[in-house]
Every structure is written in structure tokens, then in C-alpha cells.
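Example 371.
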Amino acid sequence: MDRQPTPAKIIQIPPSDSILLPGNAALRSDIVVPSDGAAPGLPQPRSLLVPRGIPLLPAGDVVPDAARFGRYRRIAARLPTYLADAVENPSWLLMFAFGRFIPIRRVYQRRHPRSQLGVLGDTLFQGIDLTTALERLEADGLAPNFALPKTVVDEVHDFTRRTPCFGNFDRKLAFYPEDHATAEVRFARPLLTGHYFESIERCQAVARIRRDPALQAVANAYLGPRAKFAATRLWWSFPTKPREADLHLASQDRFHFDLDDWQTLKFFFYLTTVDQDAGPHVFVRGSHRERAWRHQMTLLVGHPIADVITTHGADNLQVITGDSGFGFAEDPFGFHMGMSPRGTARLMLEIAFGVSAFSKRRFYGEQIILK
Ligand SMILES: [Fe+2]
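Predicted structure in complex with fe (ii) ion:
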């Protein structure tokens, strides 16, 4: 099953460019690179903060807003997944009901305090300052500069050359990433994502990243002594004209917060160079600890982009672009989203930690989808 991959395109971003967000919002790219940039020679962030106002643009080539999908249909689409979560772990219901409230999360965190950073062993992430990373995580909800060596990135690409992925979380839609265009014709539907699910257990590089002591040290310090692996996902996001339901399933182009556990920490790694056209990840700084009541007193985890930006301020929006290998840690209780790629496919790795018993079904990112 050996195949040759399509090499990732690298597009330089002119500093004067705008970044289009769905919902007709745009950000000027007044690029601010943080002072604690990645070590020389390692994958660098292209832009981390892109604030300075959000001029509203007329409707253009953007994905239709989530509002058209319908508030109740969005809940209905997730219901089978939520029911499966409750059956698998009944205490999940308690977290789902109350874990969305900031005061209750604070009480929980006081009862389960964080730990000191442990001693770091032999790590892939040379030169990283874990103390600073932890401070930024606590203050901002996001810490950059977990850069992977190129050899490790190459090893993951070698794996993706040999292994089919599954489109739109559906195991009936298996294809190789370089065959994306023909697979869309063959399956007669847009393929927005391609997940590898449990196949990644055959990838030694992913296993090495997952057991790296730097990630474990940060997770143990941030989540406390109960920190445990919650998920490992490897997936492509493809430029296409997606169906709205697939966008929703992939949580793309809409701000949401993850409500999987009382406390969660995720490490994300770009395994292709991600610029404004390759579906950058967007995070709202500080939204993991401060939230409007109307964003707590609701069953919905997703909220309109303009509403979130108005509430938290454009200066707190972090649009993350970076070289292949660039990684960052994030508290996913903060508002975040992946943008849909407009020009280049994105390969992303996620290593998630939580504090409760992990869900076997969700460990590789699998959801239950409505047909
Ligand atoms: Fe999420």
C-alpha cells in the first residue's frame, strides 16, 4: 500500500495581508511574534497574535455561518455522541451539566490543585522553557514553541504515505491523502477531514511524541497528579466546499469550547506548514478562565464568531500559523476553532490529557455520526 505523498505547499504570508474569518470578519495581520520565540533552527511560529481591530468585510468567498445549520439541529447532531458518553461513563453527565460554569470549575480546581513541574528527562523539545510555558498556559490558555525535530515530522509523513485515512469521521470513506480529489469524486461528496484513528499506533514517531517527558511534565503540572492521556489524533483538513454538517462535526469555522472533562490540556502540532490558507487554529486568549454568563448558561458549546470576538475583544484573538513541526499547548476550555483550509491541506497531531477515565471510543477522535 506504499504511495507517494503530495508535498506540502509553502506559502509566504506578506505582512500586509488580511486573514479572512468565516462570518465576514477579517483580521489585519499586524504580526506580533512573542519574545520567547522557538529556539533557532526549530520550526518557528509565523504569527501568533493578530490583533489591532477587525474590519468587517462584505460577504465573500467564505463558508456559510453556523447559524444557518440551526441551533437545535446542532444539538440533535451531537446527541448520539453525548448519549454514548453518558452510557460509557455515567459521571460524565455530571461534568457535562456543571463543567461549563466557571465558578464550579474554580471550586473543582481548588479541590484538585496543580502540581510542581517535575524533572525533565530526555525530550524531543530541546531548549523549551517549561516554566514560561506553564505561566502562559495559566494566564493565556495557550503556550507556543513546542517544536518537533524535522526527523520526527518526516517519520510521521512516511507513515501517512503508507496508510489510508477516513473521510469525515466515516470508516466507509477510506482514501490516501494524495488521492483526495479523486476520492471526492468516487464517494460523490466533499471530504473535509481525514482521520487515521487507531492506525496511528503503528507510527513510532507518534508514540515517541506521546510519551515525551516534556509533555507529561507540563500536563502533570497543569492538571495535577491525576493527569492521564485522554486522546491521540492525527488528521488532515482538506480545502474543499464542505457540507455544513461536516463542518459542524469537524468543529471548523465556529468558536467552541471543549467540554470533555473537568480539566483538559491539549498539545497540537502542525505537521505541514500552516499559513492563512491552510486552516490555522484560532484561540481566544484568556477565555479559559473568564466567560460571559450567556456563554455559560447554555447547552451549546459553540457560539457565533462575531459574538465571541465582541465579548472577548479582538486583541485577544490568536490566529496561529507556523512552520511544519510547530506545536503549542492549549487549554481547550477556552474558545477555539480550526479554520477551513482555503488552499493547502493541513496535517495536525493532537495529544490530549484529562483527569477522568478516558473514553475508549473517543481516544482516537472518533465520534458517532448521524446518517
Ligand atoms: Fe475543540
